[in-house]
Structure formats: structure tokens, C-alpha cells
Amino acid sequence: MLMDSSKLAVYPGSFDPVTNGHLDILERALKIFDRIIVMIGDNPNKNPFFSPSERIDMLNEAIKKQIKVKGVVEVEYFGGLLLNFLKKKNANIIVRGLRAVSDFEFEFQRALLNRKLDSTIETVFIMTKDEYSFLNSSIVKEISRFNGSVKGLVPINVEKELKNKLNGIK
Ligand code: ADP
4 falls in which pLDDT band (50, 70, 90)? Predict the structure, then answer.
């Protein structure tokens, strides 16, 4: 079988909303892979704040404005199992970000589980910039709800969308 030699990886997550920590991982991943598909999924343990299409739009705009590294990035929502998405895309590499040791246990279990379900899958972990090590989407939503500033934590378009959503504009 003739294989496409360009290196493809899938970066899955809730991205509810995308933060500068997510973009940092994406930018680093683009130094390793030629093409990245960001898969927006729904974590069954979390209630999404933004709809899939809002999350897609915010990511696309942030990528256009902030990602400077060469490479192809596509953003898609998928409501099913990550492994099925990988199959559909003919991909076998998952990229995940690591913030702190506290992420490790969960991520380690996930990576081993995915490999058990499909032995061709590899999970690649990328370490975040230290200034984003405390950052996650939940914190961003919490700060916004109490009218705090999320400047520098999220892309500028996301700052605006958070305000609009909380003010009931959208
Ligand atoms: P999930 O609900 O699947 O964890 P998230 O949107 O919270 O989805 O995160 C998606 C991916 O991005 C995960 O691999 C997570 O570890 C990583 N990530 C999230 N925030 C940061 C950050 N501040 N720095 C580095 N990686 C991050």
C-alpha cells in the first residue's frame, strides 16, 4: 500500500474554550508533525459552555491569528470515540498536552487504554510552557463569570466571546 509520507497527528480535547495553553501545544506539535487535526469532542463528565460550532469558530480564528509555525491545521467536531475518529482520518498518532504531574496519571491510563484497544496507536505528550502550567478552560470560565480579566490566558477573540456569552449577547 502506498502511504502518504506527511506526518499526521490528531490533537483531541474539549477546547471549551481554547486557551493560550492549547495554542502553545499546537504550535509545538507543528514542529514535529506536518498536519494536525484538532478534534473537538465532548467530555461526558463536563457540561459544555460553548456549542461545537462556537468552539470550532473560536479555534479557527485563534489559529489564523496566533499560530506562526508552518503546517496544516484543521479543526473538526466529532461526537464519537476518539479511536473511531483516528480510523476515519487514517491517523495513528494522538497529541496531548501535559501541564503538571497531576495530569500524568489520567493521561497515562488513557494512552495505555487506547493502545490496548488499538496497538497501532501512539500517544505523544508535549510539555507546556511553564507560564501556562496552571491554565485550563475551567479556570478561564470561572474568572470570566466573576468579571475577572482573562487577558493573556486566552486569544483575544475568545476574550470577546466569553464576555458576549456571559452578557447574554449570544
Ligand atoms: P480534555 O477535556 O480532553 O482534557 P481540554 O480541552 O481540557 O480537553 O484539553 C485538551 C488537551 O490540551 C489536553 O491534552 C490537555 O492536557 C491540553 N491542555 C489543556 N490546557 C493546557 C495548558 N494550559 N497547557 C498545556 N496543555 C494543555
Answer: low
List C-alpha distances in Å: 117 to 13, 15, 121: 19, 25, 9
66 domain residue, yes or no: yes
Q: What is the mean pLDDT of residues 23-44?
A: 95
Report the C-alpha gap between 124 and 167 in whole angstroms.
39
Q: How many domains does the chain have?
A: 1
Q: Which of 22, 55, 96, 144 is catalytic?
A: 22
67 CA to middle of ligand 1, Å?
17
Q: What is the pLDDT of residues 65-78, one digit of tens each?
A: 999 888 899 999 99
Question: Could you tell me if residue 130 is inside a domain?
Answer: yes
CATH number of the domain that residue 89 is part of: 3.40.50.620
Question: Is residue 2 in some structural domain?
Answer: no
Print the domain residue range for 149: 8-166
pLDDT of residue 163: 93
The beta strand positions in 28-164, using DSSP E, are 35-40, 72-77, 93-98, 122-127
Q: Is 46 a catalytic site residue?
A: yes
